[in-house]
Amino acid sequence: MEKKAPPFAAYEWTIAWRYLRAKRSEGGVSVMTWISLIGITLAVFALVATLSVRSGFRTEIVDTILGANSHITLYKAPSQDQYGNVIRTFENYDEISSKLISLPGVKRSAPLIRSQIMATYDERNTGLEVFGISYENLLGLERISNPEKYSGNLSNFENGIAIGSGVARELGVQVGDKIKLISPNGVRTAFGVSPRIKQFKIVYIFTAGRYDIDRTRSYLPFNIAQEYFNREGLADEIEILLDDPSNLTEAIRLIENIVEPDIQLWTWRDASSSFLRALEIEDNVMFVLMSILVMIASMNIISGLIMLVKNKGRDIGILRTIGLSKGAIMRVFMICGAFTGIIGTFFGVIFGCLFALYIDPIFAVINILSGGGVWDPSIRGIYSVPAELHFMDLVKATCLSLGLSFVVTIIPARRAASLHPVEALRYE
To the nearest whole percent, how much of the chain has pLDDT over 70? Predict the structure, then answer.
């Protein structure tokens, strides 16, 4: 009994390769093959580039949040004194901070003064969010104390004020200038409360990496902020930094066991929950849209293979006559389509990775060619386009493209296999 050749034998690959490299004059469809190849390459490139920018954007946002804000913030629940005044401040903040810093996983605990005021300089004014914090605790905020861009010297913090670069641009100030801070709840007099106006020397200007932070935030020494905002012996909040900010559940449990019931907890996830949910929804939508783009590009393979089947009709008849089975014919054309998908996916992944690695110079060139203003930080919150490659993103893009490329080849391949030898020989 004659032994049958196994599926995907060497001759099947040889026939498929000859069909792919055949010129149009020889009955090939090299042009359609190139169109399919380029389409898949561009689609996979767009998918990889989108996934990398998405991952980079998320990482940059979360890193900025964790590097410029507390991981857990303690608030005092509102209460009333004997005169009916609402009290939200801590009196025993040093005692609470000492207890918190002793907990496992807690890196730092610091009391804060926090308020919103008006800042003015040379007839310019802007709203300002002021944080009163000690110099030692300010050093723990990496995005503030050790940013990529800054001016001045943070070691002089006790002698002035630290402001964001966006605030500096808005007011037109630099290190060494003096700005006026105006607090509506200032000096208490016999006639009521009058605004408090005081000058502070700018000793440090930081760029945290988030537009909303750099545009609104400033820092004063803790004791000076207490005096300025009438908080002598008090603190508005107690911020906590964790060794592992992602592990909030265990940290919250430990903190709740040692603090009083009237103290409320607010985590960085709570503060950014709506933003993080929006990012997640955007991620899912972008992946679906890019997947549709890859699917459309894969459809070009069907067109190319259908034309190939039509042009190779006589060849199919001859191959069937000399003994090739329907399965062998089907596999030949599946190899043709799959080969296009594999090569297109390979180059798409390579170009997508190169785009992610060299995204800064690419956007710099685009910005120059467009005359500037390609990336508006006031809208997007960060100053540049981030990109970050993740192995699983590359796996998802590759599997999606290859899976679609393999699936779409089935239809034209089955059509080729279903041709009757006599009918196939009639093809011109």
Answer: 81
Which of 206, 208, 163 lies closest to 60, judged by CA? 208
More confident residue, 220 or 389: 220
Residue 1 has pLDDT above 50, yes or no: no
Which amino acid makes up residue 112?
L
Write down the pLDDT at residue 354.
92
Q: What are phi and psi of 96, to 5 degrees?
A: -65, -40
Helix (H) or strand (E) holding 22: none
Which residue shows structure tokens 């059509």? 415
- Sign of torsion over alpha carbons 62, 68, 73, 77: negative
The bridge status of strand 106-121 relative to strand 178-189 is: antiparallel
Average pLDDT over residues 345-362: 89
Q: Quote the percentage of the chain above a pLDDT of 90.
A: 21
The pLDDT tens digits for 84-128 are 666 788 888 888 888 899 899 898 899 999 999 999 998 899 999
pTM over 0.85: no
| Beta-bridge partner residues of 149 | 207
Rounded distance, CA 358 to CA 355, Å? 5
Instruction: Please give the Cα distance from 92 to 235 (Å, whole number).
Output: 9
Which region holds residue 123: left if phi is over 0, alpha if psi is between -120 and 50, else beta?
left
Q: CA quadruple 82, 85, 86, 89: dihedral positive or negative?
A: negative
Q: DSSP letters of 150-179?
A: EEE-GGGGGGSEEEEHHHHHHHT--TT-EE
- Cβ proximity of 181 and 209 under 8 Å: no
Alpha carbons 282 and 64: distance in angstroms, whole number: 19
Asked whether the beta carbons of 82 and 277 are under 8 A apart, the reply is no
Q: Report how far apart, in Å, the C-alpha atoms of 361 and of each of 148, 200, 374 are.
A: 18, 39, 13
CB-CB contact of 162 with 219 (8 Å): yes
CB 137 within 8 A of CB 110: yes
**Partner residues linked to 220 by β-bridges:** 132
Domain ranges of the chain: 10-63+276-424, 78-261
- Scanning the structure block, which residue is given the tokens 């679906």? 288
Q: Are strands 124-133 and 217-221 parallel, antiparallel or unpaired?
A: parallel
Neighbours of 191 (CB within 10 A): 6
Q: What is the DSSP string of 297-345?
A: HHHHHHHHHHHHHHHTHHHHHHHHHTT--HHHHHHHHHHHHHHHHHHHH
Residue 79: strand, helix, or coil = strand
| Identity at 363, one-letter amino acid code | F
Taking phi over 0 as left and psi of -120 to 50 as alpha, with beta for the rest, 355 belongs to alpha
